[in-house]
Recover the amino acids of this structure.
C-alpha cells in the first residue's frame, strides 16, 4: 500500500514536471528558447496552410462560418503568435522574459490545439467519404508536424499531443467505421511512439545543455585561476597585462588619462633569507592585503611576481595627487608587519607613469614605470618616482650609449683614472681607487655613472671589467709597495662561476701582489644574490685580496649578512657626507656606521669629502680614511707618480 502511494506520488511529480518548465535552470531556458523560437513560426505555417487546404475541400459542402469565419478567427490568433516569434527570433531576451514567453506558449498550447481539433471534428459530418478521410489525415499529420516543432518545449508538445490525439482516437473510434477505427489506432500508436521519442530527445537535450553549462563553469573557473596569484589571491601578471591593454584602449576611446605604478619591496630578500620562505610568503600576502585596502574600485592591484606589485590607477588626477597616493602606499608598507610572533620591517619603492603624456601604449607604460622605479631606487630609495621628461631623455641617451658601446673598441677607448684614498692621521696615500673613463669617438667622454649601468644591462660589462682590471693592475704595479689598488666590480662580474674564474685568472697573472688589491662591491649587488656573492668573494679572498663594501648605508643589508661575506673594508656613501656639518641626521648615520665598522673590525673609508668643513667633522668623529675632491679628483695614470711624490714631500 505504502509503496503504491509512493509510486503514485512520484508519478504525479513526474507528470507535473513534464507539464511545467524548469525555472531553476536559466541556461536550459535560454537554450530552449533559442531552439524553439526558430521552429515555432514554421509550426504556424504548417498549421495554417493545412487548415486552409482542409477548409478548401469543404467549401462547397460545409457552412460558410465553418469554412471561412472560424478559420479566419484562428488565422488571426495564429498570425499574432507567428509575428511575435518571428520578431523575437534573433533577440536574446532576459531570463525573466524567456520564462514568461515559454510559459505563455505552454498556456495557450491547450486552447489553440483544442480550437483546431473542435473545428476539424465539426467539419467531419460534411462532405463525402474522401472529405472525411481528409479530416482524419489533416488531424493525424498536422499534429505530428506540430509535435516536432514543439519538441524543445515539452509541456506544450505534450499538451498538444494529448488534446489532439485523445480527441482524435475517441472521436474516430466512436464513428463505428472500421477504416476510421483503424486510423485511430494508427495515429494513437504513432503518437505514443513519437511521445516516447520526444521524451528521450528532451532528456538528451537537457543533459547536453547541462553538460555545456558545466563545461562553461569549469572553463570560467580555469580562467579565474589562470588570472589569480595563488599566494596573495590578487590578480596576477597575466591579468595585469590584459587589464592594462583594455585600459589603454578605453582611455584612447574616451581621451582620458590614467596611471600605472610598479611597486617593489625594499628589504624583502633578507627577510626570505633570514626567516625562511614561509615567513616571506606570509609577508607578501600581508603586504598585498595592505595595498588592497588602500585601493578603491578605480585602482586595479596585481602581483607581478617576487616582491613586485603593479597598479593601474584609472582617472589619474594630476601628478601631485598621484605622488601623494603612491606615498601613502609606500608609507603603509613601512609600518611593521607582525608575522607569527616576529615583527618585520620593510619598505617599498614605487615608479609611476601616466598615459598618454609619458607613455602611449601598454609596453611603454610598463617599461617606463619600471624605469622610474629602478632609477628612483638608486637616488630616491623607498620613495615614489614619477616618470618624467628627464627620464625619457635619459632613455634616449641610454639608447645612444648602448649603440656606441656595441661598436666600441674598449682596448683603445677605455682608460683608468685613479683617485687617492688618504689616511688623514698620517696624510699617507693608502690606496688609489680605479675609476673607468670612456672616450667614445661618437659621444665623446661619457661618465661611468652613465655607461656602466647600460653596460651592465646589456652584458657588455664583463668584457669591460676584464680590460679595465688588466689596465689598472698594470698601472698599480708601478707604485710603491705600500699603496693599494681598489677596483670596482659590478654584480654581473660575480654572477657566474665562469666569469669569476676569468677575473681570478687576470689577477693571478698580473704580476701585482694580489694582497695589495681590494675589490669593491656595492651593497645593492650583495643583496641581489647573497649566496652567489658569498661564493664569488670567497674565491677572490683566497687570492689574498680584500673585499670592500662600496656605497655602504644605501642598501638594506643586515649585519649578519655582511658578516657572512668576510669583508675587509666598508666605504660610507658620499650622500651621507655632503654637508655633514649642517645635517644632524647624516652626522648620526656616519657616526653609527663608523662605530659599526669598529665593532666588526673593518676598516672604514669615507667617500666624497669635498670641503674643509666636512673634513673637520670627519676628523672630530674619528674617521681615518678619506677619499674625495678635497684631496684630488680622479687623475690619469700618468699623473699618479707625480701625485705620490708630491704627497710624500708634504708628509716629509
Ligand atoms: P664609486 O665606486 O662610488 O666611485 C666614487 C665616485 O665618486 C667616482 O665617480 C668619483 O669620481 C666620485 N667622487 C669621489 N670623490 C668625490 C667628491 O668629493 N665629490 C664628488 N661629487 N664625487 C666624488 P665616477 O668616477 O664618476 O664613478 C661613478 C661610479 O661608477 C662609481 O662609483 C662606480 O660605481 C662606477 N664605476 C666607476 N668605474 C668603474 C669600474 O671600473 N667598474 C665598475 N663596475 N664600476 C665603475
Ligand atoms: Mg667604488
Ligand atoms: Mg662609492
Amino acid at each position: 500500500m505504502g509503496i503504491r502511494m509512493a509510486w503514485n506520488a512520484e508519478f504525479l511529480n513526474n507528470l507535473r514536471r513534464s507539464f511545467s518548465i524548469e525555472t531553476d535552470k536559466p541556461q536550459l531556458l535560454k537554450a530552449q528558447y533559442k531552439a524553439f523560437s526558430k521552429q515555432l513560426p514554421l509550426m504556424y505555417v504548417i498549421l495554417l496552410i493545412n487548415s486552409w487546404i482542409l477548409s478548401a475541400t469543404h467549401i462547397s459542402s460545409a457552412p460558410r462560418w465553418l469554412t471561412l469565419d472560424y478559420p479566419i478567427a484562428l488565422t488571426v490568433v495564429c498570425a499574432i503568435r507567428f509575428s511575435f516569434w518571428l520578431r523575437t527570433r534573433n533577440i536574446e531576451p532576459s531570463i525573466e522574459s524567456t520564462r514568461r514567453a515559454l510559459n505563455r506558449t505552454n498556456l495557450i498550447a491547450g486552447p489553440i490545439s483544442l480550437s483546431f481539433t473542435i473545428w476539424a471534428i465539426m467539419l467531419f459530418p460534411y462532405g463525402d467519404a474522401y472529405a472525411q478521410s481528409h479530416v482524419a489525415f489533416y488531424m493525424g499529420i498536422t499534429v505530428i508536424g506540430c509535435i516536432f516543432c514543439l519538441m524543445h518545449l515539452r509541456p506544450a508538445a505534450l499538451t498538444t499531443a494529448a488534446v489532439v490525439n485523445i480527441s482524435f482516437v475517441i472521436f474516430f473510434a466512436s464513428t463505428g467505421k472500421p477504416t476510421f477505427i483503424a486510423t485511430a489506432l494508427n495515429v494513437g500508436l504513432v503518437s505514443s511512439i513519437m511521445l516516447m521519442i520526444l521524451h528521450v530527445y528532451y532528456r538528451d537535450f537537457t543533459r547536453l545543455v547541462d553538460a555545456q553549462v558545466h563545461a562553461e563553469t569549469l572553463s570560467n573557473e580555469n580562467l579565474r585561476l589562470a588570472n589569480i596569484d595563488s599566494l596573495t589571491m590578487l590578480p596576477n601578471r597575466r591579468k595585469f597585462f590584459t587589464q592594462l591593454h583594455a585600459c589603454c584602449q578605453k582611455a584612447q576611446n574616451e581621451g582620458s588619462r590614467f596611471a600605472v605604478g610598479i611597486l617593489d619591496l625594499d628589504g624583502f630578500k633578507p627577510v626570505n633569507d633570514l626567516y625562511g620562505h614561509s615567513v616571506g610568503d606570509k609577508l607578501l600576502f600581508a603586504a598585498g592585503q595592505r595595498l588592497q585596502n588602500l585601493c578603491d574600485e578605480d585602482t586595479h592591484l596585481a602581483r607581478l611576481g617576487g616582491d613586485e606589485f603593479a597598479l593601474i590607477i584609472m582617472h589619474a588626477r594630476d601628478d601631485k595627487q598621484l605622488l601623494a597616493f603612491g606615498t601613502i602606499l609606500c608609507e603603509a608598507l613601512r609600518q611593521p608587519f607582525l608575522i607569527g610572533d616576529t615583527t618585520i620591517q620593510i619598505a617599498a619603492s614605487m615608479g609611476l607613469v601616466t598615459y598618454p603624456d609619458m607613455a602611449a601604449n601598454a609596453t611603454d607604460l610598463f617599461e617606463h614605470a619600471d624605469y622610474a622605479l629602478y632609477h628612483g631606487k638608486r637616488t630616491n630609495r623607498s620613495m615614489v618616482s614619477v616618470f618624467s621628461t628627464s627620464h625619457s631623455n635619459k632613455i634616449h641617451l641610454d639608447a645612444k650609449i648602448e649603440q656606441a658601446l656595441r661598436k666600441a673598441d674598449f682596448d683603445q677607448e677605455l682608460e683608468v683614472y685613479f683617485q687617492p684614498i688618504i689616511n688623514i692621521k698620517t696624510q699617507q696615500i693608502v690606496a688609489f681607487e680605479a675609476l673607468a673613463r670612456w672616450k667614445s669617438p661618437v659621444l665623446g667622454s661619457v661618465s661611468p655613472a652613465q655607461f656602466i649601468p647600460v653596460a651592465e644591462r646589456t652584458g657588455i660589462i664583463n668584457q669591460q671589467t676584464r680590460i679595465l682590471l688588466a689596465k689598472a693592475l698594470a698601472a698599480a704595479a708601478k707604485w710603491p709597495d705600500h699603496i693599494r689598488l681598489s677596483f670596482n666590480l659590478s654584480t654581473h662580474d660575480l654572477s657566474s662561476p665562469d666569469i669569476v674564474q676569468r677575473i681570478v685568472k687576470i689577477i693571478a697573472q698580473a704580476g701585482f701582489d694580489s694582497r695589495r688589491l681590494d675589490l669593491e662591491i656595492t651593497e645593492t649587488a650583495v643583496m641581489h644574490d647573497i649566496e652567489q656573492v658569498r661564493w664569488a668573494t670567497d674565491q677572490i679572498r683566497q687570492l689574498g685580496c680584500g673585499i670592500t663594501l662600496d656605497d655602504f648605508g644605501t642598501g638594506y643589508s643586515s649585519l649578519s649578512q655582511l658578516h657572512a661575506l668576510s669583508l675587509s673594508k666598508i666605504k660610507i656613501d658620499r650622500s651621507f657626507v655632503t654637508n655633514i656639518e649642517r645635517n644632524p641626521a647624516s652626522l648620526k648615520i656616519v657616526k653609527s656606521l663608523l662605530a659599526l665598522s669598529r665593532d666588526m673590525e673593518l676598516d672604514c673609508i669615507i667617500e666624497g669629502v669635498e670641503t674643509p668643513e666636512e673634513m673637520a667633522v670627519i676628523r672630530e668623529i674619528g674617521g681615518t680614511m678619506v677619499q674625495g675632491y678635497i684631496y684630488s679628483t680622479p687623475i690619469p695614470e700618468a699623473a699618479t707618480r707625480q701625485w705620490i711624490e708630491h704627497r710624500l714631500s708634504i708628509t716629509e
Q: What stands out?
A: The chain has a mean pLDDT of 90. The longest strand covers residues 428-440. The two ends are 126 Å apart (CA to CA).
